Amino acid sequence: MKLLSIVVPSYNSEAYLSKCIDSLLAGGEDVEIIIVDDGSKDRTGEIADKFERLFPNIVKAVHQENGGHGAAVNTGLLNATGLYFKVVDSDDWVKESAYKKILDTLKEIAGGDKVLDMLISNFVYEKEGAKKNKVMKYHHALPKDKIFTWDEVKHFRKGQYILMHSVIYRTKLLKDCGLKLPEHTFYVDNLFVYEPLPYVKTMYYLDVNFYRYYIGREGQSVNEQVMISRIDQQIQVNKLMLDYLVKKKFEISRKPKMRKYMTNYLEIITVVSSVLLLRSGTEENLEKKKELWKYIKQKDIFLYMRLRFGIMGNSMNLPGKGGRKISVESYKICRRIFKFN
Predict the structure, then answer these.
(1) C-alpha angle with apex 270: 196 to 137, nearest 5 degrees?
(2) How far apart, in whole angstroms, are the C-alpha atoms of residue 106 and residue 104?
């Protein structure tokens, strides 16, 4: 069994896939790299096959009809044989020194008597044109260099969330919890991180800058105008997260710190949805914003009260044009968190 399975969802990635895979090969034979060619129209599949030929004990190329990022992650999970599971997008890469520390840590824990469900590390926003790259760290919220539980988690700052870039899950945990992401839908990386959380009992935070998250490419999914054009998919993910939190609320309520974290995560995703609908400025999207908040209210009135009458929820729902102008100021918060470009 491999120590770590790394899935690389790839669609029309010929310009940057090699850089990504080259960085992952530094893990050697402790790692399996599963390149999922998601119906690409360029040379992505050919590049994936080349890496499989050159490194048959490390790289596996899987080809499928286009199903979107979620379908590629699902396929990767089906093919994963490693003890742990990581997703690395094809336009991103990893830092070798941090990578080796992570593998050493996972190897040491795997040989011990405790089971680790989730490892967290830092990631770096590699933003096009930026003079200084922002590092997402967790040392104020999480104990370092030890296995810990939700009871030991401290306060997360606004914008300090565990994203796909920072997480490695135990593979069996993902399979046991039945994780299956929606197909043909963007922004499902939020579901990938969110849905396994109630099953996570043990965590480990390694304070290294491992994942390099490239941002600034034209047409990238976090480009603001692209997000507005795909707002229905953002709303779909938002509602799925809400549905999940409501469905699991009794299990989640047993761990107050986890419940707080998951509620805060849902809050920021709802603010992102709302602020993008406001930024678009169309009557149709203003109606969609009303419908989203109505959906939350119908699903769980107590959760609605928590989200609607918090500071951020209030700022999203001020009346009139003047209120909307103030609401859009919250966009600056979302921009700092998600690095819209």
Answers:
(1) 60
(2) 6
The Cα 72–Cα 184 span in angstroms is 10
Q: Which residue has the tokens 């921009």?
A: 335
Distance CA 149, CA 147 (A): 7
Task: Return the structure tokens found at 276.
Answer: 């993008």
Distances in Å between the Cα of 98 and the Cα atoms of 80, 104, 122 are: 22, 10, 10
Query: In this structure, how many other beta carbons lie within 10 angstroms of the beta carbon of residue 108?
Result: 9
Rounded CA separation 125/122 (Å): 10
Q: What is the total residue count of the chain?
A: 341
Work out the angle at residue 19's Cα, subtended by the Cα atoms of residues 15 and 25, and round it to the nearest 5 degrees. 145
CATH of 4-215, one of 3.40.50.300, 3.40.50.720, 3.30.230.10, 3.90.550.10: 3.90.550.10
332/309 Cα distance (integer angstroms): 20
Tokens of 76: 């990767």
- Distance separating alpha carbons of residues 78 and 81, to the nearest angstrom: 9
**Measured distance CA(156)–CA(206) in Å, rounded:** 16
Residue at token pair 């840590």: 105
Pairing of strands 203-215, 93-94: antiparallel
Q: Distance between CA 3 and CA 78 in Å, rounded?
A: 16
Copy the structure tokens of residue 145. Answer: 């260099």
pLDDT in tens, the chain (341 residues): 899 999 999 999 999 999 999 999 999 999 999 999 999 999 999 999 999 999 999 999 999 999 999 999 999 999 999 999 999 999 999 999 999 999 999 999 998 899 999 999 999 988 776 677 889 999 999 999 999 999 999 988 877 889 999 999 999 999 999 999 999 999 999 999 999 999 999 999 999 999 999 986 555 556 778 888 999 999 999 999 999 999 999 999 999 999 999 999 999 899 889 888 888 889 999 899 999 999 999 999 999 998 887 756 656 665 556 555 656 655 665 565 555 44
Query: Quick check: helix, strand or coil at residue 283?
Result: helix
